[in-house]
Design goal:
Elements: H1 19-40, H2 42-50, H3 72-81, E1 96-102, E2 106-111, E3 127-130, H4 139-149, E4 153-156, H5 162-171, E5 176-179, H6 181-193, H7 198-201, E6 206-209, H8 216-226, E7 229-231, E8 235-238, E9 242-247, E10 254-256, E11 260-265, E12 279-285, E13 295-301, E14 316-317, E15 328-330, E16 333-335, H9 337-345, E17 350-360, E18 363-372, H10 379-394, E19 400-404, E20 416-418
Parallel strand pairs: 3-4, 3-5, 5-6, 6-7, 17-20, 18-19
Antiparallel strand pairs: 1-2, 8-9, 9-10, 10-14, 11-12, 12-13, 15-16, 17-18
Helix pairs in contact: 1-2, 5-6, 9-10
The chain binds zinc ion.
Zinc ion (ZN) binds next to loops.
């Protein structure tokens, strides 16, 4: 598939030679190709042997007719018999940057790009599925470059096409996966639905999973249930800025990296908030190409400045608490649907809820409406516990709880409704 730039250099002058001279040069090139392929590609040697041919039998372009045409169907068969390249890969896998899949399916190797900065070569000879998106947003290409720099061969999988990706991961005996923990979980589930025993039938040994909050339980499952070694913790990055923060081995929030400055601001007043208060994450990257100074991410979070046991002294963002637009500011604190969902999720007694914010005598008022799935045993104590839990998570108390009939609250309705007018 890929030409070898050293063995067969491109020669512009060939195009303008008198035809007989060019044909002579082309014949020479062909002889070189045939003996090279015969030695390096076992699949080609087999084909020649089958036809009773030696490399010396093919000296001119005319001699090529001695060899039966290799059809797409043949290649599909060959790749099935001798995966993944049907014996036509003429260089070590470590020399391959990418593997692509064309309809058939047929796997096509693509040779390494020259001049890529090389890191340690520990990825050599291993195929990794890169499931970050390759188009529109930069993650796919950035990670791809990094992986190739480490010596890996990359299958540029991108996102989606779950069933196809399972097939590719299986056929290519991919040893690595890069992407979000939830997508890896989806692939494993799909593989099991397709009748595979993931641990037995696949070769996946490691996963670089990040880009999501709360991936820890999944990482644990990958390791314990499937023997997949997980690299990377929770990470926070945006398409505009790139990487902003990532968790360390202690897994106690994501350290802000030193290539950016992070401020937390009050989305309403624009004032910078002290550590421990929730607001919009504003980032200034040290980037000479794209210096987005004080870029508002629209994400809600806070900074924790207590020293981390890992020895890093940088501030941490414990988690992303949602989009600042969905949050409602109540008595100087932000309440986000993710927080209220978190509280309510702990109460199996509640079927549905809505938090209604109003302004009563110049004070923000929060009414928690709930539809009960079942009656709590000691309703008063139960409500007290809920109130306490709510205050703990949301950092602000609701004023009243109101029980409404099942079906009163629209299931699609916003979880927090702001009815204040100023
Ligand atoms: Zn740390």
């Amino acid at each position: 598939m890929s030409e070898n730039p050293d063995l067969f250099p491109h020669d512009n002058s060939l195009e303008r030679l008198p035809a007989p001279e060019r044909e002579k040069k082309m014949d020479e090139k062909l002889q070189k190709l045939i003996s090279y392929a015969y030695e390096q590609a076992p699949g080609f040697k087999k084909r020649m042997d089958k036809a009773g041919l030696k490399p010396s039998d093919i000296k001119t372009i005319g001699d090529l007719q001695k060899l039966r045409v290799l059809r797409k169907d043949d290649l599909i068969m060959l790749q099935k018999e001798d995966p993944p390249f049907g014996g036509y890969l003429a260089v070590p896998l470590g020399d391959i940057d990418h593997v692509y899949q064309s309809p058939g399916p047929i796997y096509d190797p693509q040779r390494k790009t020259k001049g890529l900065p090389m890191g340690p070569d520990f990825g050599k000879g291993q195929i990794v599925m890169n499931t970050w998106s390759y188009h529109i947003t930069p993650a796919g290409l950035l990670v791809d470059r990094m992986l190739r720099g480490m010596g890996f061969t990359v299958f540029p999988a991108g996102i989606g096409n779950t069933e196809l990706q399972v097939q590719v991961m299986h056929d290519l005996k991919a040893t690595g996966f890069v992407g979000t923990p939830s997508f890896l979980a989806t692939l494993i589930k799909k593989a099991e639905e397709m009748g595979y025993d993931f641990k037995k039938d696949f070769s996946l040994k490691f996963a670089m999973v990040s880009g999501e909050m709360g991936g820890e339980p999944l990482r644990k499952m990958f390791t314990e249930k499937y023997g997949i070694f997980c690299l990377g913790g929770d990470a926070y990055a945006t398409a505009d800025i790139g990487s902003i923060s990532s968790s360390c081995e202690k897994n106690v929030g994501m350290h802000v990296n030193t290539d950016v400055i992070v401020e937390i601001i009050d989305p309403v007043s624009g004032k910078v908030l002290p550590a421990g208060e929730i607001g919009e994450i504003v980032v200034t990257p040290f980037d000479e190409v794209y210096p987005l100074v004080r870029f508002g991410t629209g994400d809600l979070g806070m900074l924790v400045t207590e020293l981390c046991e890992c020895g890093r002294t940088t501030a941490r963002i414990p988690k992303i608490m949602g989009r600042s637009g969905d949050a409602v500011r109540v008595r100087a604190m932000f309440v986000h649907p993710r927080q209220t969902d978190e509280v309510i999720a702990r109460c199996p007694e509640i079927a549905n809820y809505q938090l209604i914010v109003t302004r009563v005598e110049n004070r923000d008022n929060m009414l928690l409406q709930v539809e009960l799935a079942k009656e709590p045993k000691d309703k008063e104590a139960w409500a007290k516990a809920l109130e306490k839990d709510f205050a703990g998570v949301c950092k602000v108390r609701f004023d009243k709880i109101e029980y409404v009939k099942a079906g009163t609250i629209d299931k699609e309705a916003k979880k927090i409704v702001d009815k204040r007018t100023y």
